[in-house]
């Protein structure tokens, strides 16, 4: 065998082939057990002289031949070795050949074999196996970290998709919202949040790619080099024990001295790296590094892979950059320190192998491995901080220069306090937040990264109060619904989106207009009237020539949606809504409730239906409160609507936490009636027939109804319940009843129709829907809308269902016409 000047390493040559290399090393370590068994058996057989020795040699020749390939090149070599054997196997063959020529052995030699060869082999085999398992566990940890990084990226991608979906939802809500300014403000705020999530997603992509690169080029090669070193260390120790065994035989059997010298020569030629070289040459294969992760746009929000660099995004990026830069220096110093520790212990190991230092090398290798694990953990954090810093600075530069960061301290606010950024309360479930030690700025945990770096420094108590008032006023101004024009704010990003309204939503606009004008009852025959004034152009549809990005967004809802009957021009709702004032303070304790302080003005949205609760609007919040807690003012007379901006001054309120200390004792309100009814279920109906492909799916027939448990998260499947079993169905095969709201009004109005006008049917829709409570007043617009939407929806149902619904609608229409004629007469 020729000497090799520079021995190749597993990490440089085999890249990510840890599992087969680990198996190969395991074979070598388990082979030590066979060798020690050999010496133990030989010690017992030595007393049986030549016959037994010849049988033993033959037996282990056969064992060697069976394991020649796995021990030489592993279980799955890229190239078969043929008749070639590794250097260790060749040396082992020489030992067996020497054994066949020796027939005279002594009992003392057998005892020496037990004490000086077999027991050390057992001890070394156990310790080597422990080291090998630590290598395997560490490699598994690295793989788990890589997969966790991928999983975190997928979660970030899911959050980005959810944010995009929320933007789309806000956009759709703004189309039908009466409060245009508030809806548009919520829509713009959601876009800003989506941009922040997108930036986080892009940062996560870069971090994942960098960690992936380190995994395949640094982490795994280092583990494989260490595994190779363990295998070579095992070979070196094995050579030493073989030498001891041969020396015992040479000293005891002078007649066999020549054979033993030859065996010792063969052992000395078995250099530790020769087995590794043979394994490398027979296991070389093509290595394909996985491609880098790239930005994947949301299926509902078509976007590019560029960082968002508007002012709101810069605030978020500046805060992320500040945190990353603050930790980067410490991480680099810690990495250098731990790397020096690893290099120092490696030099100790080298001195042990050279014989200049007497220490337990296995213990030293264990220490090296522990230090390398610590170094890896710190280095991963350093890489993450460096990638975050470089990603942000390459997009917007070093935005931390000149920034006056707040000296935040984590707080749990036991006294209700308002967030200086969003104006919301920091209390209850969201009591955790931050407080600036210098200027007193308070914010939620979720708002920390959105706070501008404009700390004025240490302030006196009076200055803090003044700043608090100014910040609260600025935060409250963002929450007030403003009577603004339908145009989009000029500082918002320029976005465009094609009209995605379908024919059904257009049908709603027809039916709503028909209910007011008394026009034709068929939305197909009706021609929409031309608006008396030209519609304002949507500025969001114009793309600036200075930007290189194009994004898609719907124009402002006020630009193309006509106002519904009774809505004010500024989107504030009907002018005849009843006003009231809270007699007592009410704290929300359940879903759908809203907290309102004593003396606050509220607007009735839905009257008390007999449950003791009424739905109100307080500022920009909506929810239910006890009816006994509100003092309602008499309704004001109807006045002509002003087509311009509302002349009524906007009602303002203060939610500053500074008033808490001066407020008097709260008046305790009367007992609250319990809310009636359970959680309302959402139903879907099957559009087509479907046969389940597995036990996890439901079979469906056309028109079959299910309870919707979980909507389509993006994979094309929805979870529904039928017969107490929750399973999946194709999301495109089901659809929520479009006329659910209208059907509810229709079925409730049936109770008011004289029985002579109603066709009695067994198992009516009213019974199946579980109707409870007094009937509501019929709404003509909703009545005609129900007629149109129901007629469209029933096309996909069977003929009997269409006839039954048509009969109900005709009976109600006839009853209403007769009631109108009687009232006119």
UniProtKB/TrEMBL annotation:
Composition bias, Low complexity: 538-547
Residue intervals of the Phorbol-ester/DAG-type domain: 405-455
Record-linked SMART domains: C1 (SM00109), FCH (SM00055), SH3 (SM00326)
Coiled coil: 150-184, 321-348
GO molecular function, one term: metal ion binding
Any Pfam family: FCH
Keyword Zinc: yes
Keyword Metal-binding listed: yes
Polar residues bias: start-end ranges: 482-508, 640-661, 754-763
One term under GO cellular component: cortical actin cytoskeleton
Domain F-BAR: 8-275
Highest taxon of the lineage: Eukaryota
Keywords in alphabetical order: Coiled coil, Metal-binding, SH3 domain, Zinc
InterPro entries reported in the protein's UniProt record: AH/BAR_dom_sf, Bzz1_SH3_1, C1-like_sf, DAG/PE-bd, F_BAR_dom, FCH_dom, PKC_DAG/PE, SH3-like_dom_sf
Basic and acidic residues bias spans: 459-473
Domain SH3: start-end pairs: 575-635, 679-739
Record's function text: Plays a role in endocytosis and trafficking to the vacuole. Functions with type I myosins to restore polarity of the actin cytoskeleton after NaCl stress.
Family affiliation: Belongs to the BZZ1 family.
Name this protein carries in UniProt: Protein BZZ1
Species in which this protein is naturally found: Colletotrichum nymphaeae SA-01
High-level lineage: Eukaryota, Fungi, Dikarya, Ascomycota, Pezizomycotina
């Amino acid at each position: 065998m020729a000497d090799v000047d520079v021995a190749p390493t597993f990490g440089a040559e085999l890249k990510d082939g840890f599992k087969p290399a680990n198996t190969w090393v395991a074979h070598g370590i388990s082979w030590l057990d066979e060798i020690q068994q050999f010496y133990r058996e030989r010690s017992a057989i030595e007393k049986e002289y030549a016959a037994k020795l010849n049988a033993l040699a033959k037996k282990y020749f056969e064992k060697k031949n069976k394991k020649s390939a796995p021990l030489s090149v592993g279980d799955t070599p890229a190239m078969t070795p043929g008749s070639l054997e590794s250097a260790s196997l060749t040396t082992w063959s020489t030992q067996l050949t020497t054994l066949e020529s020796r027939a005279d052995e002594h009992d003392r030699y057998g005892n020496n074999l037990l004490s000086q060869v077999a027991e050390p082999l057992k001890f070394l085999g156990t310790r080597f196996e422990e080291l090998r398992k630590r290598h395997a566990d560490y490699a598994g940890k690295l793989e788990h970290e890589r997969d966790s990084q991928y999983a975190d990226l997928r979660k970030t991608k899911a959050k980005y998709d959810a944010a995009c979906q929320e933007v789309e939802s806000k956009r759709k809500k703004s189309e039908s919202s009466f409060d245009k300014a508030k809806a548009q403000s919520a829509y713009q705020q959601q876009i800003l949040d989506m941009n922040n999530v997108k930036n986080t997603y892009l940062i996560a992509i870069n971090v994942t790619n960098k960690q992936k690169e380190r995994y395949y080029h640094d982490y795994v090669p280092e583990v494989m080099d260490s595994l190779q070193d363990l295998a070579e260390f095992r070979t070196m120790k094995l050579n030493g024990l073989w030498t001891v065994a041969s020396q015992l035989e040479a000293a005891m059997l002078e007649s066999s001295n020549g054979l033993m010298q030859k065996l010792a020569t063969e052992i000395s030629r078995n250099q530790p790296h020769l087995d590794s070289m043979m394994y490398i040459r027979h296991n070389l294969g093509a290595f394909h590094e996985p491609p880098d992760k790239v930005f994947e746009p949301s299926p509902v929000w078509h976007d590019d892979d560029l960082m968002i660099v508007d002012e709101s995004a810069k605030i978020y990026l500046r805060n992320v950059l500040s945190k990353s830069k603050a930790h980067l220096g410490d991480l680099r110093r810690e990495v250098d320190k731990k790397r020096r520790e690893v290099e120092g212990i490696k030099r100790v190991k080298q001195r042990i192998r050279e014989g200049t230092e007497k220490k337990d090398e296995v213990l030293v290798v264990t220490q090296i491995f522990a230090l390398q694990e610590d170094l890896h953990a710190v280095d991963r954090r350093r890489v993450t901080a460096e990638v975050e810093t470089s990603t942000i600075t390459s997009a917007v530069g070093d935005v931390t220069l000149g920034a006056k960061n707040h000296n935040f301290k984590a707080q749990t606010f036991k006294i209700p306090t308002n967030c200086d950024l969003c104006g919301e309360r920091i209390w209850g479930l969201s009591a955790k937040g931050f407080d600036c030690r210098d200027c007193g700025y308070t914010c939620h945990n979720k708002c920390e990264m959105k706070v501008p770096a404009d700390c004025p420094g240490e302030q006196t108590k009076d200055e803090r109060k003044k700043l608090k008032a100014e910040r609260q006023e600025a935060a409250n101004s963002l929450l007030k619904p403003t009577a603004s024009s339908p145009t989009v704010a000029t500082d918002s990003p320029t976005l465009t989106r094609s009209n995605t309204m379908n024919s059904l939503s257009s049908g709603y606009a027809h039916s709503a207009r028909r209910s007011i004008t008394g026009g034709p009852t068929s939305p197909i025959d009706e021609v929409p009237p031309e608006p008396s004034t030209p519609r304002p152009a949507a500025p969001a549809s114009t793309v600036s020539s200075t930007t290189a990005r194009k994004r898609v967004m719907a124009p402002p809802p006020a630009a193309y949606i006509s106002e519904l009957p009774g809505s004010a021009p500024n989107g504030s709702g009907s002018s005849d809504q009843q006003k009231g004032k809270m007699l007592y303070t009410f704290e929300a304790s359940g879903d759908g409730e809203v907290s309102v302080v004593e003396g606050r003005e509220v607007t009735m949205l839905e009257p008390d239906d007999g449950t003791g609760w009424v739905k109100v609007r307080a500022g920009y919040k909506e929810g239910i409160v006890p009816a006994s807690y509100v003092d309602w003012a008499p309704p004001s007379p109807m006045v002509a609507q002003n087509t311009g901006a509302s002349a009524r001054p906007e009602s303002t309120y203060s939610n500053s936490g500074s008033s808490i200390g001066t407020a008097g004792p709260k008046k305790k309100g009367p007992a609250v009636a319990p809310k009636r009814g359970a959680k309302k279920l959402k139903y879907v109906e099957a559009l087509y027939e479907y046969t389940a492909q597995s036990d996890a799916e439901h079979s469906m027939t056309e028109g079959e109804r299910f309870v919707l448990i979980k909507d389509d998260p993006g994979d094309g499947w929805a979870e529904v319940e039928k017969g107490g079993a929750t399973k999946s169905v194709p999301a495109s095969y089901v659809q929520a009843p479009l006329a659910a709201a209208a059907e509810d009004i229709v079925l409730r109005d049936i109770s008011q129709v004289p029985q002579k006008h109603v066709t009695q049917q067994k198992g009516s829709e009213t019974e199946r829907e579980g109707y409870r409570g007094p009937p509501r007043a019929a709404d003509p617009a909703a009545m005609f809308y129900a007629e149109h939407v129901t007629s469209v929806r029933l096309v996909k149902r069977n003929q009997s269902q269409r006839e039954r619904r048509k009969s109900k609608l005709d009976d109600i229409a006839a009853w209403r016409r007769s009631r109108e004629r009687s009232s006119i007469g």
